[in-house]
Amino acid sequence: MKAFVVGRSMTTKLENRIHAIWYCVPANDYARFITAAEEKFFNECDTRKVPVIALLTKADILNGVAIGELRDTGLDMKTAMQFSGEKEKELLDRLKKRMIEGVGACKFPPKCYLSLAKMHEEVSDCTDLLAATTNALDEESLKMLLISTQQANILLNMKWAVK
Hints:
- This protein is mainly α.
- Helices cover 53% and strands 10% of the residues.
- The protein has helices spanning 2-10, 36-44, 62-72, 77-103, 127-136, 139-149, 154-162, and strands spanning 21-26, 52-57, 112-115.
């Protein structure tokens, strides 16, 4: 995977270039810690100028976990469902904190972190994902993307290659 990412981040053919990486981590195990594979990726895979966005996917599954934990405290189902949103947010915040502490301390940490829920639904809203991806692209990345699309303009490419 490392060779693929490095190769695709450096290629001059725009249609083969990686512009951003969405690194998906399922939130269905909210008690999880960083896996060896995740630690290896964020310590060994220099994505160059390609930003990595860590996505906590399936965040909506935490609602069921939240209800279960609230029921375990003695609440009835109706009350547990009423307070499940707060508990779900608490579980997600805990998972996000673990993720940030774990891979954030690595050599090549993600540029940002985002949780996603209900993305399997046909009417999924990708606004937050697109905003996070856009925000993760720094000025230099955007310049490189623009320059790479201007392959016909040799002078422009040479000018930026020197910079």
